[in-house]
Amino acid sequence: MRVAVALALLGAVAYEGYEVVESPGSQLFGKTLVSGPKNQRVVALTYDDGPNPPYTGELLSVLRTEGVHATFFVVGRAVAAYPDVVRREVLDGNAIGNHTWSHEHLVLDGQSSLRRTLERTDRAIFDAAGVHTRIMRPPFGGRDWLVLGEVRKLGYTPVMWSVPLANDWEFPPARVIAARVLRYAGDGAIIDLHDGNRGLLCARMHVAAHECDRSADVAATRLIVDALKRQGYRFVTIPQLLRMQAATRTASHASE
Ligand SMILES: [Zn+2]
Question: Which of 95, 100, 221, 239 has the CA that lies 20 to 30 A from 189?
Answer without folding.
Answer: 100
